[in-house]
Amino acid sequence: MQRIMVIGAGVMGAGIAQTCAQAGYQVLMTDPDPAALSRAMDQIAAFLAKLESKGQLEQPADKVLARLSIAGDLAGAAGAEMIIEAAPEKLELKREIFAELERLAPAEAILATNTSSIPITTLAQGLARPQRLLGLHFTPPVPLSRLVEVIRHEGTDEEVFQAGLELVRSLGREPLAVRKDVPAFVINRVFAAALSQALELVEQGVASAQEVDMGMRLGYGWTLGPLQTADLVGLDTVLLVMRSFARQGEYKLAGGSALVEEMVRQGRLGRKSGQGFYDYTGAGHKKA
After folding, report:
1. Which residues of 46-64 are buried (b: 16+ CB within 10 A; e: fewer)?
2. Where are the alpha helices (DSSP H) in 204-275?
3. 107 and 80 Cβ atoms separated by less than 8 Å
4. Gap between the Cα atoms of 31 and 9, Å rounded
5. Quick check: 148 and 138 in contact, CB under 8 A?
6. How far is CA 126 from CA 92, 116, 147, 244, 266, in A?
7. CA-based R_g, the chain, Å
8. 52 touches 64 (CB < 8 A)
9. Residue 183 belongs to a domain
10. Are 152 and 178 in contact, with CB atoms under 8 Å apart?
């Protein structure tokens, strides 16, 4: 496998594209929004330059970037061997994308989704080749994270599942094999439960966002606290995931959504907007 297509130029899509290019793959990143593609390429170039300055890149940054190209449509699926969808967490949007991919991509291509909450079985419904679909759930920040969940649904071919595991290893990551398809899989079920409790504690005034995050960092060794992670992912994305949980009846994983909904309404989306639970607009890292 040499050619990978990544659909979506948001935080996750850009991170996946960068990680695959660093591992030596030819990568095509697509998004219908030209501004999103431009931002993603700028972010990737800056990230690679930082890694290179620290001596943490195996190859020069310009060689990595040379393996990465962009497009505004899905036509490039015709030449892809692996296609990783990292579009917003909207079921109908993802279904539309996979229906189009089945029309454009070679029959032998592997289709993967980076969904964080939608069962792979649900996305496989209606596909002509559901056996070629699996989940590849990366965790943020993708270029630094060491773990990727590889999820099969009942109809996933064993060969496809093994190819997913091998791809993750080739990226220098550890695959977590998820053999039973449940909403949010393993990592996000645990994280969503922690985030739900963190949100409720902040909303009730039990502790501040900073204090909750400090407790998880110092008490349990988390690199980032749950609310810092939510800011990193984007609170608009977090809200989509929470709504997805609620639609699936997973209400215990969707607690605290009212607070997130209000912050999104105010335009406080986290790092991407400059403010979320923390303020990213000035020096330091202060609560907004």
Report:
1. ebbeebeeeeebeeebeeb
2. 209-220, 226-233, 235-247, 257-265
3. no
4. 6
5. yes
6. 12, 20, 30, 20, 38
7. 19
8. no
9. no
10. yes
Judge if 51 and 83 occupy the same domain: yes
- Is pTM beyond 0.85 here? no
Virtual torsion, Cα 215, 218, 223, 225, nearest 10 deg: 0
Distance CA 4, CA 81 (A): 6
Type of residue numbered 171: L
The one-letter code for the residue type at 31 is D
pLDDT number for residue 238: 93
Q: For residues 158 and 140, state if they share a domain.
A: yes
Residue 132 shares a structural domain with residue 242: no
Both tokens assigned to 154: 């009942």
* DSSP secondary structure letter of residue 257: H
List beta partners, residue 178: 151
Whole-angstrom Cα distance, residue 233 to residue 12? 8
CA–CA gap between residue 29 and residue 200 (Å, rounded): 37
Give the HSE-up count for residue 270: Cα atoms under 13 Å, Cβ half-sphere.
18
Which of 160, 178, 196 is the last residue before a domain boundary? 178
Looking at residue 287, its pLDDT comes to 46
For the chain, which residues score pLDDT lower than 50? 284, 287-288
Which residues sit opposite 175 in a β-bridge? Answer: 148
Tokens of 210: 């900073």
**What is the secondary structure of 166-204 as a DSSP string?**
HHHHHTT-EEEEE-S--TTTTHHHHHHHHHHHHHHHHHT
Decide: 160 and 135 in contact? Cβ < 8 Å.
Answer: no
